[in-house]
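Colleagues,

For the teaching module next term, I've prepared a clean inverse folding example: a structure given as tokens, and then the sequence designed for it. I'd like students to try predicting residues themselves before seeing the answer, so please don't circulate the second half yet.
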């Protein structure tokens, strides 16, 4: 099978190269360069380049704003366009290879021309991408937000095919996959826990973010490591033209961002910080104990870039964030640190490379300061990675990508150090390490003006290595009979396999197209958690001889159509995903500080399928979208639910999201979100029995009941004072209300004895939020 797939891909690439060779004899030359924001000098991602004289011939910029277009010698009119910026048309005479850098200015339209500028008008019909969501920060900032804090992940949860983990949480599920099956990257560095305040907010400061893209399917071959999705977030590069300062004050936090040139038009930097201040109000309390409490989080985003010459550019970026919670007897903190060093190099006008060094560290600490129970519990996962990616622009019909990546992982699942007078004993879970790597090759090919395909292959490998101790168990799978100690970098267990990727687009006409995709994905790291969202003290572990890698196959098809001169964008996608080696837990499993976690894990298969409907209005004073998702996800794991299939906890059959904004006047903008979804599945007690004078509950089938349906309305109004030709200062006020009609949505269900009827058990619903108003002041100069 592997040999066959390699032959298919090799043959396809030979055919595509064959289309290039005759063309080379026609004396073609290459137009290449960068598209940038005129105001800041930042590269524009995904901008379009078209040639008026050659219908259907064009290119798009990559993640750094670079483009390359090979054409026959001649005179052309080249059109450069992006997002809602004013397009630029330029006459170009091509007699030899030519570099052309173009700057686009933001298109400030009158009220009657207001439109969503985050997308090209016909992008959903014309591009290869399907099962892909893009968000612009300017769009996010007009949406109602919890406590006034604009949140990238909260906005992602309002799109089709994406489910929230629960009220207020930043965890999310994509097409039936768990929270750990989403690869979240910030400037290519993995973020293992993207939550602040136990999940109520994400770690991404919108002021520092440039581009957000979520792949739900049709994942390109250069990405891997997770089953369900890739959330790719890119930070701003900084203003290379002039000093800029922006920030804001909200109900929850304050933010400040500074960006400026290092050398004008050659290099720039950005520093962006955010901090909450709930703990500052504790100081005002008359309660002395409360004054000592701490509860806050902070973020710091840093990035700089410098152009060495026409062919070389360096980027360095980092993120540092932490949550701190502390009172007189206990403390808890967790955080992420990431670092990325990138080198862009142009070998020639058609071969672009990017070499990246990556560091990522997620750690947490939990402790008690009470003398008799004093302890400190720490855990972390660290990554060190090297990536080398290439893009070869063969001709306008073929764009080949290839490269490799390698990562060294360090895992410390948990270590407890007791205090000198504590009754605790020292506990250290087995630490271990792992290495993984991948090679990939893909081609995006235009077969005809209407038919385009993208095909690729990823070969991934993984090895669990020492130092570490591996236990051997008896026939019952629980009793330890022996153990083996492995030295540093000594191989414990290795895995690997192929991950084919394919997608196709056929344009039915200028306004509609159909698309299809298939991808296989593999995941070698696993999150050990029995909660519905990713909590800081959950543990990441590598695959070993007991826990095999997860893998999944997903197929999807969609119909995309624009209506009324691209005013309305519509689509419907259907998908089916089969997942293998899915992890679940034995009944009454204890995973807390369990040094033999393999004894409580079970493995089985899962499947998810559904349909996603999407309508988006892009033009006019009223803009927004409506999405509806119909989905089903279940698992079948031997040893659970008598071997019968059961729904996962995050299975939510129906999901509706309505997001609207309305431009009342040049100064006033109002917005509303309405969210509805079916309640998640839970396991509930259905009876009880007594034994030796003790009462024990009898539970339903696994996840056999449902929480009540969830729905909520959020409202916002934004008052803007725009810049003028004489004043560069911009400011705005945003007034928002979260849960406007005070719906008491279930955060959790607990059970207790009924006070009026002893012996009878009643369910008690706990809800988290009522109506929450917020005010945010933003400024920019």
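(Answer key — instructors only)
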């Amino acid at each position: 099978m592997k040999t066959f797939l390699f032959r298919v891909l090799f043959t396809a690439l030979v055919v595509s190269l064959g289309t290039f060779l005759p063309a080379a004899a026609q004396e073609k030359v290459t137009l290449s360069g960068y598209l940038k924001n005129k105001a800041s000098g930042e590269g524009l991602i995904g901008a379009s380049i078209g040639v008026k004289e050659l219908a259907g011939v064009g290119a798009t910029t990559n993640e750094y704003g670079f483009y390359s277009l090979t054409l026959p010698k001649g005179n052309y009119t080249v059109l450069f366009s992006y997002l809602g910026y004013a397009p630029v048309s330029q006459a170009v005479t091509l007699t030899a290879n030519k570099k052309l850098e173009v700057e686009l200015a933001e298109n400030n339209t009158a009220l009657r021309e207001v439109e969503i500028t985050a997308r090209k008008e016909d992008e959903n019909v014309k591009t290869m991408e399907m099962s892909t969501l893009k968000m612009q920060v300017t769009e996010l900032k007009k949406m109602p937000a919890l406590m006034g804090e604009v949140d990238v992940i909260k906005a992602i949860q309002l799109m089709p095919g994406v489910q929230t983990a629960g009220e207020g949480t930043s965890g999310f599920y994509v097409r039936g996959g768990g929270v750990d099956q989403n690869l979240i990257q910030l400037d290519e560095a993995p973020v293992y826990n993207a939550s602040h305040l136990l999940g109520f907010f994400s770690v991404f400061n919108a002021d520092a973010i440039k581009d957000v893209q979520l792949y739900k399917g049709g994942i390109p071959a250069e990405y891997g490591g997770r089953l369900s999705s890739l959330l790719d977030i890119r930070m701003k590069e900084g203003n290379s033209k002039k000093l800029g300062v922006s920030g804001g004050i909200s109900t929850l936090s304050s933010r400040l961002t500074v960006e400026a040139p290092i050398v004008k038009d050659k290099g720039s930097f950005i520093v962006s910080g955010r901090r909450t201040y709930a703990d500052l109000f504790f100081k005002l309390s008359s309660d002395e104990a409360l004054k000592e409490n701490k509860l806050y989080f902070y973020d710091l985003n840093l990035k700089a870039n410098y152009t060495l010459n026409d062919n070389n550019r360096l980027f360095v970026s980092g993120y540092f964030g932490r949550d701190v919670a502390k009172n007189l007897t206990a403390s808890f903190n967790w955080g992420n640190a990431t670092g990325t060093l990138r080198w862009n190099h142009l070998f020639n006008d058609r071969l672009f490379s990017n070499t990246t060094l990556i560091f990522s560290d997620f750690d947490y600490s939990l402790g008690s300061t009470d003398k008799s129970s004093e302890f400190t519990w720490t855990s972390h996962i660290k990554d060190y990675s090297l990536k080398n990616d290439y893009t070869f622009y063969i001709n306008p019909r073929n764009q080949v990508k290839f490269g490799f990546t390698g990562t060294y992982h360090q895992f410390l699942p948990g270590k407890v150090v007791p205090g000198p007078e504590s009754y605790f004993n020292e506990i250290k879970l087995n630490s271990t390490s792992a290495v993984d790597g991948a090679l990939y090759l893909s081609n995006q090919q235009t077969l005809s003006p209407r038919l385009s395909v993208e095909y690729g292959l990823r070969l991934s490998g993984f090895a669990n290595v020492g130092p570490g101790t591996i236990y051997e168990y008896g026939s019952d799978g629980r009793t330890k009979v022996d153990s083996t100690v492995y030295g540093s970098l000594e191989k414990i267990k290795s895995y690997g396999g192929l991950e084919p990727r394919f997608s196709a687009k056929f344009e039915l006409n200028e306004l509609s197209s159909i698309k299809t995709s298939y991808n296989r994905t593999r995941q070698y790291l696993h999150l050990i958690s029995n909660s519905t969202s990713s909590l800081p003290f959950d543990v990441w572990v590598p695959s070993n001889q007991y826990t095999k890698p997860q893998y999944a196959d997903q197929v999807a098809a969609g119909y995309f159509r624009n209506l009324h001169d691209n005013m309305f964008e519509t689509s419907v996608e259907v998908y089916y995903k089969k997942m293998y080696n899915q992890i679940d837990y034995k009944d009454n499993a204890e995973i807390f500080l369990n040094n033999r976690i393999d004894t409580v894990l079970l493995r089985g298969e899962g499947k998810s399928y559904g349909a996603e409907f999407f309508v988006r209005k892009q033009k006019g004073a009223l803009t927004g979208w409506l999405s509806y998702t119909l989905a089903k996800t279940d698992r079948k794991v031997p040893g659970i639910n008598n071997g019968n299939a059961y729904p996962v906890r995050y299975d939510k059959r129906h999901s509706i999201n309505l997001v609207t904004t309305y431009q009342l006047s040049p100064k006033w903008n109002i917005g509303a979100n309405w969210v509805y979804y079916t309640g998640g599945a839970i396991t509930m007690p259905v009876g009880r029995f007594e034994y030796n004078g003790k009462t024990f509950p009898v539970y339903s089938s696994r996840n056999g009941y449902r929480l009540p349906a969830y729905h909520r309305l959020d409202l916002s109004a934004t008052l803007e004072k725009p810049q003028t030709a004489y004043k560069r200062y911009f400011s705005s006020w945003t007034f928002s209300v979260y849960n406007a009609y005070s719906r008491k949505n279930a955060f959790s269900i607990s059970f207790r004895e009924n006070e009026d009827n002893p012996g009878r058990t009643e369910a008690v619903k706990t809800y988290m939020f009522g109506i929450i108003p917020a005010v945010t002041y933003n400024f920019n100069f």
